Amino acid sequence: MPIPDDEFRTIDEDTPAIDLASDTTQGKIYRFLLENADRAFRQREIVDAVDVPRGSVGPTLKRFEERGLVEHRSHYWKIADAEHATVSAGLLGAETADEIDGGFSDEEVDEWMETAVDPVEGRDGDDSRDA
């Protein structure tokens, strides 16, 4: 089963991949900082703004800082400028693609995934190029 790139990059690292899904503590904090990229916050302000356990904010921010996702000065934390630029560019690219092709519904994507071909293996599943 394929794994995401960020998980792949942490295989040899001692630290696990960061799960930024919207229902996780990490994801909630990340999205809050990303949506407020023009401001920096104290930890308690993040706790007050995001529905996460108080004791999880500090360790989460430290993990983010180690990965270059946030910046920290004095008691304040904010999304890293490079991270904000990268995410913004990705969102803009996706919005532009949706404007051009009208976007795809979840059902259309699921249907496509059922018939998608791995370009390395080819249509017949022959991966003789690996030999």
Quick overview of this protein structure:
With 131 residues, the protein is mainly α. The protein is 51% helix and 6% strand.
CATH architecture of the largest domain: Orthogonal Bundle
Major sheet, described briefly? 2 strands, antiparallel
Spans with pLDDT under 50 lasting ≥5 residues? Answer: none
What is the average of the pLDDT values? 81
Question: Share of helix among residues?
Answer: 40-55%
By CATH, the superfamily of the largest domain comes out as Winged helix-like DNA-binding domain superfamily/Winged helix DNA-binding domain
Give the CATH topology of the largest domain.
Arc Repressor Mutant, subunit A
Characterise this structure.
This protein has 131 residues and is mostly helical. It has 2 domains: 5-79, Arc Repressor Mutant, subunit A (Orthogonal Bundle), CATH 1.10.10.10; 81-117. Helix content is 51%, strand content 6%. The chain has helices at 5-9, 25-35, 43-49, 54-66, 81-101, 106-115; strands at 70-73, 76-79. The protein has a two-stranded antiparallel ribbon. The radius of gyration is 19 Å and the shape is globular. The model has no long low-confidence stretch (mean pLDDT 81).
